[in-house]
C-alpha cells in the first residue's frame, strides 16, 4: 500500500512515495535496520520467508537481500520514475556496472554514448573487455541513426542525457525505439535530471540508473546507486544483483530516502540559481559558450524541452581562446566553489575538464577550456560575485580584482 495516488503531482509524490508509517509504529521515516542475521522461530518459518523473498516479495531474510529501510527507498524511486521496481547499490558506479553486466554476456557488443561519465567508460574498457564484451562508442547526437550500428550481437545501448561533462542531450525516444526493434535493451543514466525532471520509461528506456550520491542523497554525505527497471527487465536485473551481492548500507539507504523528501524544493533552487548564473556567464566577454540544456541558446534545448520537465544545477562553459590559459586560475580563485568530484549536494563546486582526452567516436570540437560548475543552494548573487572576482582577477591579472 502506498500513500500516493496516480493523480498526485510530483512534489506530493516525492514526499509520500514508499512511505509506510503504519508499518513503522507510526514513525514518519523508516527505521534504520542494522542487520545481517534474521532469525526465525522454526525452520518452516524460515523456509516460508525465503520462498517469499525469492518470489520477489519485500521480505527480510538476510541483511544483504534488503530491509524495510532499503525497500522504502527502492519503492519511492521506482514509483517517482514510473518504473516497475528498483534495486539499490553501494554507489552510482556499482549501479551502472550492475545494470550493464545484467544484460551483456561474453561475445556481445554494447553501444555506449561517447559522452558518458568517465568511470562508466573505464568499466567498459577494462572489466567488460576482460569478460569478453566489446564496447562500441557512438556519437551522443546520433538519434535514430543508431539503427545502423545495431545488429544481432548488440545486447544493449547505454545512454546518458545530458552528458554530465559535455551536456549533449540525446534523442532518447529515437534511440530506445531503434534498440527495441533490434532486440537490445536501453539503459539511461538519469542522474542529472533525477526521477523528477525526466521520466525515462515514458521515453522507451528499459532501465534507468542514478548516482543516488548526487541529488537523491543531496548533502554530500553518502554513496548510493539505484537502478530502476521496467517489468520485462526487472527479473534479470534483480537476479544479477542478488548473485553479485549488491546492496547498500542501512545508513546510506536511510540518508537517500531522507534526501529524497526535499529533492523537489532543492532542485527548484538549483535550477533557478543555475539559470541566473548561465545568464550572467553568457554576457561575459571571456566566455565562448555555456553548456546548459535549459538555456535557449544550448544546442540540446529543443530536445530538452520535449523530454524533460526541469534542469538541475550542473552546467558547463567554455572560455574564449584568450581566456582559456587562465582556466585553472579562475577555478583556484573561487571562494565559494569547492574544487571537487561529484555534485548534487547543497554546495557549489567547480572543475576544469578535458573532454577531448576521452572521446573516441566523435572528437570534442570545443576549442576553449571547459569548466564545469555545480550550482549549490547559496544565494546566486554571491556565486555571481565570486565568479566575477575570480574571472576578473585571473584573466586581467588583477586589474578587475575587487579586493
Ligand atoms: C557521479 C556519477 C556517477 C557515479 O556515481 P558514484 O556514486 O560516484 O559512484 C554515475 N553517473 C554520473 C552521471 C555521475 O555524475
Would you summarize the structure shown here?
This protein has 403 residues and is of the alpha/beta class. The protein has helices spanning 10-16, 43-54, 68-81, 92-103, 118-130, 172-181, 194-197, 234-243, 250-261, 263-283, 301-307, 327-332, 380-395, and strands spanning 85-89, 109-113, 134-138, 154-160, 185-189, 207-211, 225-229, 287-291, 314-319, 338-339, 349-353, 370-374.
The whole-number mean of residue pLDDT values reads: 96
- The count of helical stretches stands at 13
The portion of residues assigned to helices is: 25-40%
Q: How are strands sequenced across the largest beta sheet?
A: 1-7-6-5-4-2-3
Regions with pLDDT < 50 over 5+ consecutive residues? 399-403
Instruction: Note the run of SSEs as H and E.
Output: HHHEHEHEEHEHEEHHHEHEHEEEH
Using the CA coordinates, give the radius of gyration. 22 Å
How many distinct beta strands?
12
Structural category? alpha/beta
- Cα distance, first to last residue? 59 Å
Amino acid at each position: 500500500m502506498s500513500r500516493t495516488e496516480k493523480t498526485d503531482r510530483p512534489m506530493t509524490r516525492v514526499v509520500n512515495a514508499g512511505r509506510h508509517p503504519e508499518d513503522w509504529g507510526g514513525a514518519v521515516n523508516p527505521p534504520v535496520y542494522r542487520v545481517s542475521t534474521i532469525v526465525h522461530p522454526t525452520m518452516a518459518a524460515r523456509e516460508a520467508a525465503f520462498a517469499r523473498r525469492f518470489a520477489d516479495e519485500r521480505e527480510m531474510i538476510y541483511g544483504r537481500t534488503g530491509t524495510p529501510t532499503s525497500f522504502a527507498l527502492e519503492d519511492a524511486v521506482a514509483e517517482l520514475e514510473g518504473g516497475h521496481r528498483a534495486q539499490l547499490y553501494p554507489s552510482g558506479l556499482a549501479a551502472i556496472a550492475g545494470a550493464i553486466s545484467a544484460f551483456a554476456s561474453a561475445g556481445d557488443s554494447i553501444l555506449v554514448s561517447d559522452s558518458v561519465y568517465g568511470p562508466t567508460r573505464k568499466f567498459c574498457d577494462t572489466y567488460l573487455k576482460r569478460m569478453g564484451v566489446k564496447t562500441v562508442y557512438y556519437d551522443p547526437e546520433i538519434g535514430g541513426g543508431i539503427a545502423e550500428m545495431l545488429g544481432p550481437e548488440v545486447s544493449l545501448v547505454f545512454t546518458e542525457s545530458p552528458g554530465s561533462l559535455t551536456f549533449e542531450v540525446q534523442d532518447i525516444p529515437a534511440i530506445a525505439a531503434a534498440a527495441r526493434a533490434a532486440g537490445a535493451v536501453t539503459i539511461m543514466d538519469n542522474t542529472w535530471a533525477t526521477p523528477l525532471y525526466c521520466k525515462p520509461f515514458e521515453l522507451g528506456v528499459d532501465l534507468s540508473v542514478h548516482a543516488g550520491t548526487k541529488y537523491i542523497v543531496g548533502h554530500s554525505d553518502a554513496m548510493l546507486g539505484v537502478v530502476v527497471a521496467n517489468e520485462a527487465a526487472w527479473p534479470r536485473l534483480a537476479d544479477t544483483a542478488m548473485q553479485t551481492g549488491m546492496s547498500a548500507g542501512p545508513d546510506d539507504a536511510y540518508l537517500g530516502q531522507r534526501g529524497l523528501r526535499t529533492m523537489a524544493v532543492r532542485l527548484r533552487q538549483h535550477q533557478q540559481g543555475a539559470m541566473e548564473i548561465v545568464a550572467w556567464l553568457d554576457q561575459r566577454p571571456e566566455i565562448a559558450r555555456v553548456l546548459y540544456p535549459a538555456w535557449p541558446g544550448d544546442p540540446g534545448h529543443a530536445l530538452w524541452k520535449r523530454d524533460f520537465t526541469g534542469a538541475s544545477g550542473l552546467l558547463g562553459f567554455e572560455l574564449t581562446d584568450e581566456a582559456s590559459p587562465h582556466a585553472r586560475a579562475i577555478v583556484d580563485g573561487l571562494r565559494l566553489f569547492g574544487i571537487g568530484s561529484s555534485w548534487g549536494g547543497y554546495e557549489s563546486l567547480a572543475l576544469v575538464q578535458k573532454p577531448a582526452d576521452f572521446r573516441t567516436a566523435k572528437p570534442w570540437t570545443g576549442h576553449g577550456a571547459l569548466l564545469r560548475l555545480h550550482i549549490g543552494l547559496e544565494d546566486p548573487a554571491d556565486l555571481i560575485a565570486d565568479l566575477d572576482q575570480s574571472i576578473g582577477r585571473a584573466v586581467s591579472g588583477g586589474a578587475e580584482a575587487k579586493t
